[in-house]
Amino acid sequence: MIREARPEDEARLRAIQTNTLDEPWPELLGVGIDGPPLVLVLDIGEPLGYALVVPDPPVAYLAEFAIAPGKQGQGLGTALMDGLLDRLRTREFETVRLTARTDDEQARGFYDGFGFSVADELPGHYDDGDGVLLVRDL
After folding, report:
1. pLDDT the model gives residue 92
2. Residue 23 has pLDDT above 90, yes or no
3. Cis ω on the peptide bond leading into residue 47 (within 30° of 0)?
4. Which of 6, 103, 120, 131 is buried deepest, with most CB atoms within 10 A?
5. Which residues make beta-bridge pairs with 50?
6. List of E strands, 19-58
7. Lowest mean pLDDT: which of 33-37, 68-72, 100-104?
8. Under a CB-based contact definition with an 8 Å cutoff, are residues 32 and 66 in contact?
9. Is the dihedral of CA 26, 112, 92, 58 positive or negative?
C-alpha cells in the first residue's frame, strides 16, 4: 500500500534514510512528514520505502527516494515510483525533477526506465562528485 506518511512513521523512515542515502536531508524529512512537502510511504506491514517530494506547481521535485536495505531489487521501488507518479498526476503536476549522481548507474537506469531524461549536468553538486538533473513530464 502506498500512503502519505504519518508522525509514527518518522523513526522507521529516518532509519531507511540514514542507511540508504549518501547525503540524506533529515530536516526536510521531519518537515515533510507533517507537510507541505509530500512524503509517500510504501507500507507492506511496515514502512519499507518512501518518496519525499517538494511541490512547486506545476513542478514536483523528488528530493529523496529510498527503499530499505535488504528490500531493494524486489520491485518495491517500481511500485513506489508508479504510485508517486499517479499521485502527482491527480494533483495536476506537469513535471517531475530530481537529481542523481552522474556515476550512479543503478539509480540512473532505474529512473531511465520511468522515462526520466538528463536536462542538465551539475558539476560538484554532491560533496564528493557530480550530478545530473533528470526530468520527466507527467
Report:
1. 85
2. no
3. no
4. 131
5. 41, 66
6. 38-43, 47-56
7. 33-37
8. no
9. positive
Least confident of 20-29, 62-71, 99-108: 20-29
35 pLDDT above the threshold of 80: no
Q: Which of 49, 57, 126 is nearest to 88 (CA)?
A: 57
**Cell numbers at 79, concatenated:** 511500485
pLDDT of residue 24: 85
Mean pLDDT of all residues in 7-20: 95
Measured distance CA(99)–CA(38) in Å, rounded = 17
- For residues 96 and 60, the answer to whether their CB atoms sit within 8 Å is yes
Place of cell 547525503: 23
- Full strand arrangement of the beta sheet holding 95-101: 2-4, 38-43, 47-56, 59-67, 95-101, 129-137, 117-126
Cα–Cα dist 102/44, whole Å: 31
